[in-house]
From TrEMBL:
HAMAP family membership: RNA_methyltr_RlmN
GO BP terms, alphabetized: methylation
Function according to Swiss-Prot or TrEMBL: Specifically methylates position 2 of adenine 2503 in 23S rRNA and position 2 of adenine 37 in tRNAs. m2A2503 modification seems to play a crucial role in the proofreading step occurring at the peptidyl transferase center and thus would serve to optimize ribosomal fidelity.
Organism of origin: Paracoccus benzoatiresistens
Location, primary (coarse class): cytoplasm
Protein's UniProt name: Dual-specificity RNA methyltransferase RlmN
rRNA processing in keyword set: yes
Pfam families on file: Radical_SAM, RlmN_N
C-alpha cells in the first residue's frame, strides 16, 4: 500500500518513575478512599473527596491538583505532595490513510505496548493492550511470537484510554453538554496480551472506565476478547459484565490445538459450556465468535457448517477476520470469494456474520499484528511448536 503515513515522535515530559507518590490513575474508588485516608483525609470527608478528585481526573481530564478548584488550597497541596496523576507516555504515533491511529506507548520499566484508535461512522473504537507480550502462542498471531514480559497495571490500562483522549482532544470543556458524541465510544481488549491472564488489573481498569462520574463508558461498549481461559469466563460475567468475544478460529480440536494452543487445556466442548452461561450471567445479549480466515486451514464449507452446529443455542455473532499477514507468518489470508462463501453459510443459518474490514494496514495496526518494537526477542515457529507440544 502506498498510502501516506504520518509518524510523529512525541517527546512528552517523562514522569520520574520513583517519585514516591501514589499514582491516582487506575485506583478503584475503594482504593482511592483508602489512599486518601492514609494521606490524612478525615474519614468523614473521604467519600466526598473521592468523588471530587474522581470527577476532576476522569471527567475533566485534569492532571494538576492545583486546578481542582473546589478543594481547599492546603488540601490541594497535600494531594500534590502524596499523589501524582501519571499516564504512560506516547512514544510514537502513526496515522494511517484511513484515519486509524497507532500509538506506541511506553510504560514503567521502559517496556512498550501498542494502542490503536479506529474511527468509524458515528463511533470510534480503542483497541487496548493488557500485557506486554503474551504467554500464549497462537500460531497465526504476531504478539504470540513475543514472550510475556509483564502484566500491565490497572493504571496502565486506563491510561491508554486517557492518552488517546488527550491525543484526540476529547476532554470536555467546562460547561459542555454531557451527551456530546464521543470520539472514543468503544473499547475492545484486543491489543497485545490475554486479558483473562491479567484478570484483576483488567477488571479494576474496566470498572474505572465504566464509572458514571468519570470516563463513563457503558459496559455494553466494552468488549473483552479471550482465547478461551475457561475458569475466568464466569468471573468476567460477574465482576466486569462487559461484552465477550472469543477467539474461536477452528471447528475441530485438532485444528484449534494448533491455532489456539490453549485449546489443549480447555477444548472446544469445555469452552462452549462456559460460553453458554455467559449471556445470562452477564446480562449481555450475545457473544462474538472471532474467526480468522486462513487459506486452506479453517475456511472450508464444512468448517462453516460445523461452526454453526457447534454454537447452536448460544446467542452469537460471528466476526470473520481476514488474516492479517505479518513478516514470516506461516499462513495466508483466505480469498475474498472463500470468505464470502463462508459468510453466506453462516448467514443462512441465522447468524450475523460481518467480515471485519482490515484497518490501518499501512501502519501494521490491524488485529494480531501488534508487537512492540523494543521487545524483539522473537521466537521461531519451531520453538513455539515445541513449547505448545
Ligand atoms: N488474547 C486475546 C486478545 C488479543 S488478540 C485473544 O486472543 O482473544 C485479538 C484478536 O485478534 C483475536 O481474535 C485474535 O485471534 C486476533 N488475531 C491475532 N492475530 C491475528 C492476525 N494475524 N490476523 C487476524 N486476526 C488476528
Ligand atoms: Fe495471545 Fe491472543 Fe495472540 Fe493468542 S491471539 S497469542 S492469546 S494475543
Amino acid at each position: 500500500m502506498n498510502a501516506p503515513i504520518t509518524q510523529d515522535v512525541l517527546t512528552l515530559p517523562r514522569k520520574l518513575p520513583d517519585s514516591g507518590r501514589t499514582n491516582i490513575i487506575g485506583l478503584t474508588r475503594d482504593q482511592l478512599w483508602d489512599a486518601l485516608i492514609a494521606a490524612g483525609t478525615p474519614e468523614k470527608q473521604a467519600k466526598m473527596r473521592v468523588g471530587q478528585v474522581w470527577q476532576w481526573v476522569y471527567h475533566w481530564g485534569v492532571r494538576d491538583f492545583a486546578q481542582m478548584s473546589n478543594l481547599a488550597k492546603d488540601y490541594r497541596a497535600l494531594l500534590a505532595e502524596k499523589f501524582e496523576i501519571a499516564l504512560p507516555e506516547i512514544v510514537t504515533r502513526q496515522v494511517s490513510a484511513d484515519g486509524t491511529r497507532k500509538y506506541l506507548v511506553r510504560i514503567a520499566g521502559g517496556h512498550e505496548v501498542e494502542t490503536v484508535y479506529i474511527p468509524e461512522e458515528g463511533r470510534g473504537t480503542l483497541c487496548v493492550s493488557s500485557q506486554v507480550g503474551c504467554t500464549l502462542t497462537c500460531s497465526f498471531c504476531h504478539t504470540g511470537t513475543q514472550k510475556l514480559v509483564r502484566n500491565l497495571t490497572a493504571g496502565e490500562i486506563v491510561g491508554q484510554l486517557m492518552l488517546a483522549r488527550d491525543d484526540l482532544g476529547e476532554w470536555p470543556l467546562p460547561g459542555a453538554p454531557k451527551d456530546e458524541t464521543r470520539l472514543v465510544s468503544n473499547i475492545v481488549l484486543m491489543g497485545m496480551g490475554e486479558p483473562l491472564y491479567n484478570f484483576d488489573a483488567v477488571r479494576d481498569a474496566m470498572r474505572v472506565c465504566m464509572d458514571n462520574e468519570g470516563l463513563s463508558l457503558s459496559r455494553r461498549r466494552i468488549t473483552l476478547s479471550t482465547s478461551g481461559v475457561v475458569p475466568e469466563i464466569a468471573r468476567t460475567a460477574e465482576e466486569i459484565g462487559c461484552q465477550l468475544a472469543v477467539s474461536f478460529h477452528a471447528t475441530t480440536d485438532e485444528v484449534r490445538n494448533v491455532l489456539v494452543p490453549i485449546n489443549r487445556r480447555w477444548n472446544i466442548a469445555t469452552l462452549l459450556d462456559a460460553l453458554r452461561d455467559y449471556p445470562r450471567l452477564s446480562n449481555s445479549e450475545r457473544i462474538t465468535f472471532e474467526y480468522v480466515m486462513l487459506a486452506g486451514v479453517n475456511d472450508s464449507d464444512e468448517d462453516a457448517h460445523r461452526l454453526v452446529d457447534l454454537i447452536r443455542g448460544i446467542p452469537a455473532k460471528i466476526n470473520l477476520i481476514p488474516f492479517n499477514e505479518w513478516p514470516g507468518a506461516p499462513y495466508k489470508r483466505s480469498s475474498n470469494n472463500r470468505i464470502h462463501a463462508f459468510a453466506d453459510i453462516i448467514y443462512k443459518a441465522g447468524y450475523a456474520s460481518p467480515i471485519r474490514t482490515p484497518r490501518g494496514e499501512d501502519i501494521m495496526a490491524a488485529c494480531g499484528q501488534l508487537k512492540s518494537a523494543t521487545e524483539r526477542g522473537r521466537k521461531s515457529r519451531a520453538e513455539i511448536a515445541a513449547e505448545a507440544g
